[in-house]
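Recap from last week: sequence in, structure out.
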Amino acid sequence: MAVELAVGPTGLEALFTGIDRAAACRRGLHVPFERIVGSRVMSRDDAVASSPRLPCPGLTWVGRLRVGCFGIGERRQLWGVRDGTEVVVVYLSGRPFHRVVVEVEDCRSTHRVLDAALLHSKKTSARRSVRALLDDRGVPPREPRSPAS
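Predicted structure tokens:
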């Protein structure tokens, strides 16, 4: 596999190797558990269908290879998929990525390990709301909308 996915005590680590590192323009990505919303196993076709088509930077060869960043803004995704039929999709909050899509040897067991680690992190560490994080950065809260008359 050209992407190694490791679940550590503080979060998820995706490491690119070989030509995938050059195509993705990055060595890897560390995602703390606080940013992980959830994960699931999907077929490659379903994951591609719900993904932006614009590689920036990235490399795609239809049906064979999809590596790098796809999309811009809030829909930006990091891909590391070769020619497998199933992929692990990790949904994230915040930037720079909305989700990470990787192909690993055993997608189902990787998904179970990631879900167990995520559940454990939610039980053992205090979770903070996005609103509280924005308040800490000095972003003023938005005024609630009044119903239209």
